[in-house]
Automatic annotation (TrEMBL):
Keyword Iron applies: yes
Protein name, entry field: Cytochrome c553
GO CC terms, sorted: periplasmic space
Post-translational modification remark: Binds 2 heme c groups covalently per subunit.
Molecular function terms, GO-annotated: electron transfer activity; heme binding; iron ion binding
Residues annotated to bind heme c 2: 142, 145-146, 188
Subcellular compartments: Periplasm
Organism: Pseudidiomarina maritima
Signal peptide: 1-21
Length: 213
């Protein structure tokens, strides 16, 4: 009886369609170019190759974890992460659309990190914080969550190495000021509130200077 039950469950699982089709990166590319029908297309801010825009503090999306990208876009839609521009530009996408967009950006090649123009003293201070932390102030190193070389760990901790300094700084200040609350354990909020403005600039500059691959 137990074997028959297992067989029946397996058969039923084949007959019942899944809620979502497999992610389609090619369709995601089309969606990224045309937008959701009411807002700007993704490439208008994030670039034709997902490279982002440092001047506008628009993050690089190319090569980020697919699950993280989907979860982030979903958070903008349901309001657990707030950004008026993002929410306006993706509010008409279906969940399948978001999955396809995430698959597209995740498979894009990661751009080479540009040489940093930040002062070496600032980069050195940022390196110390990012790799060693400051345990006296209860600030762990970035790599303790974001993985070796800060290249990301699954869908929960994104790659921050090579990300634009302007975006990293913007987001750390958002955590610091309580404008981001999508972290259920408030880990980033607690860390950001212990950082000075100079430390934020330093760690953002260092991370931006690191290889994203």
């Amino acid at each position: 009886m137990k074997l028959n039950s297992v067989v029946m469950i397996a058969v039923c699982s084949l007959l019942i369609p899944s809620a979502f089709a497999a992610s389609d990166a090619q369709r995601g590319q089309q969606l990224s170019m045309q937008g959701d029908g009411s807002g700007a297309p993704c490439l208008a801010c994030h670039g034709a190759s997902g490279e982002g825009n440092a001047a506008g503090a628009f993050p690089m999306l190319a090569g980020l974890n697919e699950g993280y990208l989907f979860r982030t876009m979903k958070a903008y839609q349901d309001g657990t992460r707030i950004n008026p521009v993002m929410s306006m530009n993706i509010d008409n996408f279906s969940e399948q659309d978001l999955r396809d967009l995430a698959a597209y950006f995740a498979q894009l090649p990661v751009p080479q990190t540009a040489a940093s123009s930040a002062p070496q003293e600032l980069l050195n201070a940022g390196e110390k914080l990012a790799t060693l932390g400051n345990w006296d102030a209860y600030i762990p190193p970035c790599s303790s969550c974001h993985g070796p070389n800060n290249l990301g760990v699954d869908e929960n901790f994104p790659r921050i190495a090579g990300q634009h300094a302007s975006y990293i700084e913007q987001q750390l200040k958002a955590w610091q000021q309580g404008q981001r609350s999508s972290d259920p354990v408030q880990l980033m909020e607690a860390i950001a509130k212990r950082l000075s403005d100079e430390q934020i600039k330093a760690v953002a500059a260092y991370l931006a200077s690191q290889p994203a691959q």
